[in-house]
Amino acid sequence: MSHPEQILQRIIELEVEHRDLDVVIETLIKDPCHDELQLRRLKKRKLQLKDHITLLRMQLTPDVPA
After folding, report:
1. Quick check: is 9 in a domain?
2. Is 44 a domain residue?
3. pLDDT digit string, tens, across residues 5-59
4. Fewest Cβ atoms closer than 10 Å to its Cβ: which of 20, 39, 48, 66?
5. How many domains does the chain have?
6. Whole-angstrom Cα distance, residue 15 to residue 32?
7. Does a structural domain hold residue 65?
8. CB-based contact 49:17 (threshold 8 Å)
9. 64 in any annotated domain
10. What is the pTM of this model?
């Protein structure tokens, strides 16, 4: 597998985890007795995933001279 293919595979894995966190967060929010600390941690992890996905996508974009 070439480097861009590895990056794409990792992006897919992270996007799946990101969507899974969406479901978990929504489910937790619906529970009136949810753990606020857990909810904050899940949201923070979701943001970290989004940032990581963005960085990986930037690696796939070729540099264009100014």
Report:
1. yes
2. yes
3. 999 999 999 999 999 999 999 999 999 999 999 999 999 999 999 999 999 999 9
4. 66
5. 1
6. 28
7. no
8. yes
9. no
10. 0.83
Tokens of 18: 């990101």
**Distance in Å from the first CA to the final CA of the chain:** 31
R_g of the chain, CA atoms, integer Å: 16
Closest C-alpha among 65, 47, 61, 66 to residue 7: 61
Give the Cα separation of 54 and 44 in Å (integer). Answer: 15
In which residue are the tokens 């990101």 written? 18
Task: Give residue 30's domain range.
Answer: 3-59
What is the DSSP secondary-structure string of 14-61? HHHHHHHHHHHHHHHHHSTT--HHHHHHHHHHHHHHHHHHHHHHHHHS
Per-residue CA distances from 41 to 2, 48, 59 (Å): 34, 10, 27
